[in-house]
């Protein structure tokens, strides 16, 4: 491709609204342009990288037995009604009506549509198992689009769905996808971890997220410093054993605490550690009030609360709801003298608190010398976020944290959707059985951004060869010099004939501009045709290492082959 006519508008300055490197560099290198908040156009360079990632995904999915389909982006709302997700999914689901006032949604995900397709087409065990996948644009009305294509309202995703006749078959499908994902992200040259995760609005059990390690990641990974255990902080179980003090129980006492609201203020006022206080948070779970208690030095894990209660929606109560239900302000909530309709659940650590401090459900009042069991009752469960230094759930080492970007997620759905939508088959005995499903997603556009996050330097992107938009960047330094121009044209044709995908910089620009753009775009190898063109010598630069080689044109194919082997492609 000749760069003179190639749409790759580079930027010298960092865009003001681009907070992270991948967003900055994808804009500056001319891969994307913003159309609206969270909505981007992919320019030719960006599209070529997307295609490279998609090709890797297709190869691995096909190798694992997947079959590619293309499902509609516009989906009938009644399918989502059938599954029960039309209202449960929340405001991220984009909804619309056609000219006949019929309700539709824009595809945020495709469990309903694929299940509808399979229930109508596959009714015999002889046609199962099957794994169908697609690569398609998805739509989610993000409250706060940010970080470029990492969190956008329109994005490209690969989603796959397996249908099996047994849990053993589902396990095989799951493991095949797990291995395929490992291969995909390894081939994309990403440093990643597969971590245990929560299934969120998709549902199901036994899920893993594939997380690219990055300081700008929005997810926290809890991992053992002595084993391969890794889990999203949202679901990492706490296995700490709490030892209850044998100090004598003191009489509960109501204390004036004017304008003392936070755990830090309470601990300072009573001259105790935060671990001696009880943090009380009021939640609304599927419309029902629930008081959740954790130790003052711990944080509530809302995912665990949701799972323990087996509810679809768990949200922190508003100030108005708190006032209506408890007749007090936040900051003074506690588990004593509660209305009977409020359920109380507490983290295991709370049960070991002796002579603790808690809110009194009265403005400017706290209780001291509070003891669980004597002064209040609760149902106990693991409800807190794991912390660094906690023992690892695997029994080896302690927990450490790292940040990660989620690029893939695999789920065992079981019969959640097949049961709701009636996806059944006849077994070998002629009996009707429900299909058992798995779901497997990869954020294709997120993967591209994650690659840039891990592969860049101060001068621009440093593409791994497997996903680079072009193999080579051929640069004629001075197109007005006949020897350079002639050799550049000759090499362009020769390299293409050798099978290389070449970006040929034939622009009438200064050498400095061309080299800066070359570093910014970041192709693996640059070939500069300069002052020694008349001698048949060019300069070869390896983008990743900065290594420079003078090569005779006749030997250039051998030099390039050696470099490609060294770079891993």
UniProtKB/TrEMBL annotation:
PROSITE patterns: AA_TRNA_LIGASE_II. Keywords: Aminoacyl-tRNA synthetase, ATP-binding, Cytoplasm, Ligase, Nucleotide-binding, Protein biosynthesis. The keyword Nucleotide-binding applies. It holds the Pfam family tRNA_edit. It catalyses: tRNA(Pro) + L-proline + ATP = L-prolyl-tRNA(Pro) + AMP + diphosphate. Belongs to the class-II aminoacyl-tRNA synthetase family. ProS type 1 subfamily. Homodimer. Consists of three domains: the N-terminal catalytic domain, the editing domain and the C-terminal anticodon-binding domain. This is Proline--tRNA ligase. It comes from Halalkalibacter oceani. The gene is proS.
